[in-house]
TrEMBL record:
Zinc-finger is among the record's keywords: no
SUPFAM superfamilies, A to Z: Acyl-CoA N-acyltransferases (Nat)
Regions of compositional bias (Polar residues) in chain numbering: 163-172
Protein's name in the database: Alpha/beta-tubulin-N-acetyltransferase 9
InterPro entries cross-referenced by the UniProt entry: Acyl_CoA_acyltransferase, GNAT_dom, NAT9-like
Amino acid sequence: MRLNQNILLLGKKVVLVPYTSEHVPRYHEWMKSEELRRLTASEPLTLEQEYAMQRSWREDADKCTFIVLDAEKWQAQSGTSEESCMAGDVNLFLTDVGDPSLGEIEVMIAEPSCRGQGLGTEAVLMMMLYGVTRLGLTKFEAKIGQGNEPSIRMFRKLHFEQGSPSEPSTQGPRRVLPQDPRMA
């Protein structure tokens, strides 16, 4: 999504930056992990396919992707490369043409040393705020595989509710925001 191509979102634990071609080699290395592919329901891609995917995500109007950086590493010293601070990614998909106020959200903390520290939670909250303030979203859903317990626990802590697995439009935890997004 070109809308976020020059946006940097700074949180306490994470920094969200647009997914660029400079991030692809590290991202590709992460996705060689069978565990990550299982948890994210992803297929293995070649490096060339990964570059093509990054370009399409930048151009597609229905996908908003940020790379999650570890803020502590990123702020530790000037000149630190984004690639060396990468922790994962967070995405919004705007694919329900019948409901433009609905965004599907997902997060992946791929770097093992960054898991379990709240980076994913902060990244999701920041992305939801971005979705409300910049994209006009009021509802979010997360489609999570039944075996991905860490993600299920995180989204439940964020007050997402379990949807019916038999209804495609409500698969996975779903959250509807109150009228005032600051109350979320």
